[in-house]
Design goal:
Layout: H1 17-27, H2 52-57, H3 70-74, E1 84-89, E2 95-98, H4 99-105, E3 109-116, E4 121-131, H5 132-139, E5 147-152, E6 172-176, H6 177-180, E7 186-191, E8 194-195, E9 205-207, E10 220-226, H7 233-237, E11 261-264, E12 273-275, H8 283-286
Parallel strand pairs: 1-10, 4-11
Antiparallel strand pairs: 1-2, 3-4, 4-7, 5-6, 5-10, 7-8, 7-9, 11-12
Length: 299
Amino acid sequence: MAYRWKNNLTDRDVTDEAAWLNRRQIMGGMAGLGLAGMASGARAEALEPNAYEDITSYCNYYEFGTGKGDPSKYAHMLATEPWSVKIDGMVDRPGDYALEDILAKMTIEERIYRFRCVEAWSMVVPWNGFELADLLEMAGVQAGAKYVAFETVLRKDEMPGTRYPVLDWPYVEGLRLDEAMHPLTIMASGIYGKPLLGQNGAPLRLVVPWKYGFKSIKSVVRITLTDTQPPTSWNKANAREYGFYSNVNPEVDHPRWSQASERVLGSSLFAGKVPTQMFNGYEDEVAGLYQGMDLRKFF
Ligand code: MTE
């Protein structure tokens, strides 16, 4: 089995330093392990995660309201047990997979990622989750599949925001298959080692760290493999402002505001704004996915 980077590293895990550094570069930083000094030569940066309080109180989850504080107030209304994820479309083993069965089969890792919202704020989140590729391999992706579509649960009585036509519910998102299979793309089930709270997309949400936050769809109940580019909620709501790809790009402004910089949430380290990085700092890992594409056209 391929080398896997786990949070609780042992000496044995780090004997192959070259492999470890390589993995570390892919992960784009590991704060809190006290190993930053080892990374001389590697493009590594210790990311300082935001406080649990910030991550769980300043949220976007429109199914519970459009205010940043609404999700933490109302998301507890959503019953997340039992939970299953329907995996269908172009897969060998379609079905309704119980969440506990999924979690039992997957390797849960900690991934400390930058998270950049299209609204130009950002934070650093220590997610717990597994690679989406592993889940897709479990279902058996068929030749010919080119995209992955995702859907959030829709229960009007448990999700007060869905009584208003803010978006065309249910919330849907999509990735190209190679984006979905990329090792940086994870399904998160926790933050700081605790199960996800409702406001952060309990019990299972997508995290794609090089894309604007709205691609990271919450409370996923369906994953469909398809050969056509799936519709996505924000693109349906306003195609001029929100594209299918939505890769973080400081050079392509939102029609109504600049994307050149971002406000780091709850940070005392930075006064005001910091420059936004191409692909949110994951350029070395993901730029190859978009070679030959006009990033202004495919925004
Ligand atoms: N998923 C659903 N189902 N509904 C939403 O409103 N908001 C998106 C994304 N996923 C959203 C969603 C947006 S705009 C962002 S920035 C992130 O979730 C916010 O994730 P967080 O609240 O955990 O920081």
